[in-house]
Design a protein that fits this description.
CATH architecture: 3-Layer(aba) Sandwich
Structural class: mainly alpha
CATH superfamily: Glycogen Phosphorylase B
Number of helices: 5
Order of helices and strands: EHEHEHHH
Distance between the termini: 36 Å
Number of domains: 1
Radius of gyration: 14 Å
Largest sheet: 3 strands, parallel
Helix content: 40-55%
CATH topology: Rossmann fold
CATH class: Alpha Beta
Length: 96
């Protein structure tokens, strides 16, 4: 299980965890993982300002009341992410 902090743009830790098949609970709209995680499909997202969402997701994952989506997370990364693509996107942003 990988949890994410409130700040961060290039969230490589989440991408690596997904690539290894870990189930993800992450903040919505923070970092690169937001483009990869589809809530309840290949991971779980929570609003930064609503800590009860995180609390509920963790509790449910501990008692196995939500699906562990690691296989789907891995598939998402393998199909739709690459370091080269992210580097190119970053370069474009820095140049603008």
């Amino acid at each position: 299980m990988q949890l994410y902090q409130v700040f961060g743009w290039f969230s490589i830790v989440e991408v690596e965890a997904m690539a290894y098949g870990c189930s993800i609970i992450a903040t919505k709209n923070v970092g690169v993982h937001s483009a990869l995680i589809t809530h309840c499909k290949n991971g779980y997202g929570f609003e930064v300002e609503i800590s009860t969402e995180l609390e509920r997701a963790i509790e449910k994952s501990i008692i196995h009341k939500i699906l562990l989506l690691g296989t789907r997370a891995r598939d998402e990364v393998l199909e739709n992410w690459s370091a080269k693509k992210e580097t190119n996107n970053s370069t474009t942003i820095y140049k603008s």
